[in-house]
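Reading is simple: the token line describes the chain's fold. The lines below illustrate.

. . .
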Amino acid sequence: MVIGPFINSAAILLGGIGGAALGDRIPASLRKTLPSVFGLAALGMGVMLTVRTAHLPVAVMALLLGAVIGELCRLEYWIGRVGNAVRLLVERRSGTGQAAPADEEAFLDRYVVVVVLFCASGAGVFGSMQEGMTGDASVLLAKAFLDLFTAAIFASSLGYAVAVIAAPQLAIQLMLALAAGFLMPLTDAGMQADFSGTGGLLLLATGFRICGMLNLPVANLLPALVLAMPLSALWSRFF
């Protein structure tokens, strides 16, 4: 039985509720410093996973083709629209009313980063599939520690809408883990290594984005994870 998705989603729920309740009482210095620490941790995990790559050209091709598919489908845009719909629903339920257009745009810019980070980040997608295939929940457990504090920091300004993200994230991660479990008998060590390497590159992209060093559309790169193992199998067969 997988445990990572449940622990990860519980961390977001607790962090989101706690951060929204505390609000401005969280020191500004923490709200400024901790996101950079989260980004540094993501970079570290990304480096560790990238060095596992069996065939570097496979990871590069998967990333390039995944970016093309993601950009054409505008994955990050649609994730942002769904996030804004959730935000408006929470506001109506709580009776706070709708925000002004300028506030809505500012919220959307920040909320899309949170939704991508929690539901569609390389760490979450890769960690779920890795646990489903190998039973190793280490990536999701590490992500849970980060998400607990990340959710609290973002919820201090974005409100309880951050805690709501725990539900779709749990559904997505469970679905990915179960699907990966069925794929496990069809893979070999090289395919799994290339999948890990591609996931590591996505974690690097996530870390750079959190740190504000490179504004990569991480959600648009997610198709790379789907392409990694088929490309690895083709590479091993023909090269």
